[in-house]
Amino acid sequence: MLRVAKQLREELSMLMLTEMKDPRIRMASVTEVRPSRDLHSAVVKVSALGTDAEREAVMAGLRHAEGFLRSTLGDRLENLKTIPKLHFVLDDSIAYAVRVSSMLRQLDDAPPTPPAVARPPHPSGDTGMTATPAVAWPALSDVAGEVRRIIDSSHHIVCMAHKDADADSLGSALAFAAALRAIGKAPHPVVPDPVPFTLDYLPGFDTLEKAPERIDAIFTFDCATTGRFGEKRSLLESGAHPVVNIDHHVSNTAYGSVNLIQADASATGQVVFRLLRALDLPIPPEAATNLYAALLTDTGGFRHENTTEEALRLGADLVHLGADPAWIALKSYKSRAVSTLRLEALAVATMHSELEGRLVWSAVTRGMLEEAGAAWQETDGVIDVLQSVSTMTVAVLFKELQPELTKISVRTRGDADATDLCTPFGGGGHRRAAGAEVHLPLAVAQERVLQLARDQLRAA
Ligand SMILES: [Mn+2]
């Protein structure tokens, strides 16, 4: 096994150096290859230099070239019957997780209102453990002028939500679109597939477009990385239009031409509200409703730790502007399909509790989905049930999206940090809520993720 790993590592390094056109991939190095016992798959750890966006491009390039690399390896390594599937992961992920979580802790520790501290928008390529000094993202006042110029010089403006959009992302996009429409612009709200039909109550949902024909500028909402854009990703990365990146995730990779990242905001909807106010743009009632839905759901119905004084005041402001709290709560929390509850029952019935109930986890399989007659979008509430357990510190929900693709959702309490568990698997999010897509079968993903969760809980 060791010999196979060594062979794979050497040949892969050689192929990347000699056969890949992208200079960034040629500069990247394979630091470790870990084949599975049956040799069906192998995790390939890659160390790459550059900004997060550049390193992500390297990973995307490698994943794209996986077929070519495997078949060339097959030609060169004749002693192997099959060449394992290659799962590329960034090698510095753990150091990065440590860095992000320590900065989130700084945020948490700073009374009374946390400053907008985050990691640098363009971190240097260092992969070492030395702490990068925290710098502030550009303030709203620094970028407002540039955003204004982009709006003034554009007519067709795409308002983009992320893949598997939640009410914060889509509500922010639709609210901003409503404000643009009110000043005579032609907004084009767009959401990557699949269309989130559970959010069809948001005003303007019926104006969503598949592929706008004319585009002058793109605004993105609640999207930490370009990986969040699914099949729309090329639109963002074409470089053909200015991209304004509006978000509140501390893990944002600053991929926009203008980046308005406010990690102290409870929701991206709050960042949008601040921006609309700063630009003196109108906030019509349909925008207020969308922003209220964003704020309500991202604070867990004003229950999470991000329920700040400003968030509650914003709620009141939005009600003043025309949002109906009872109606939005009804649509957000009391409008579930029978199939959703059936699915939840099946998933919760498989719940496991470990380490005196500190670790609770459950899985949704494709079989459960079929049995309940439900869609993936209907699994959202399961993690909420898991995190309602009194003893819980870490709650994990596994979703068997495909035979070789497992999605994890993580929630935490106390000292535990959800990104510590998700970033090593290529995901991200917040301290209290994070997720990742793990390119492994459900059983393997469970084993790996739970092992790390147990280690982290025991070490805590
Ligand atoms: Mn959000």
Q: Can you give me a brief rundown of this structure?
A:
By secondary structure, this protein is an alpha/beta fold.
Can you describe this structure?
The protein has 460 residues and is an alpha/beta fold. The chain folds into 3 domains: 2-90, K homology (KH) domain (GMP Synthetase, Chain A, domain 3); 137-333, inorganic pyrophosphatase (n-terminal core); 336-459, Diaminopimelate Epimerase, Chain A, domain 1 (Roll), CATH 3.10.310. It has helices at 2-19, 23-27, 52-64, 66-76, 93-109, 140-152, 167-182, 233-237, 268-278, 285-298, 309-320, 325-333, 338-349, 366-372, 382-386, 418-422, 442-459, and strands spanning 29-35, 41-47, 85-90, 117-118, 135-136, 156-160, 186-190, 217-221, 243-247, 258-261, 352-354, 359-364, 394-402, 405-412, 428-429, 433-438. The strands form 4 sheets. The chain has a 6-stranded mixed beta sheet. A 5-stranded parallel beta sheet has the order 7-6-8-9-10, with helices on one face. The chain has a 3-stranded mixed beta sheet with strand order 1-2-3. Helix 10 packs across helix 12. The longest helix is centred in the N-terminal third of the chain and has 18 residues, at 2-19. The model is unreliable at 94-135 (pLDDT under 50). Manganese (II) ion (MN) binds next to loops. Residues 168, 222, 248, 267-268, 298 line the site of manganese (II) ion.
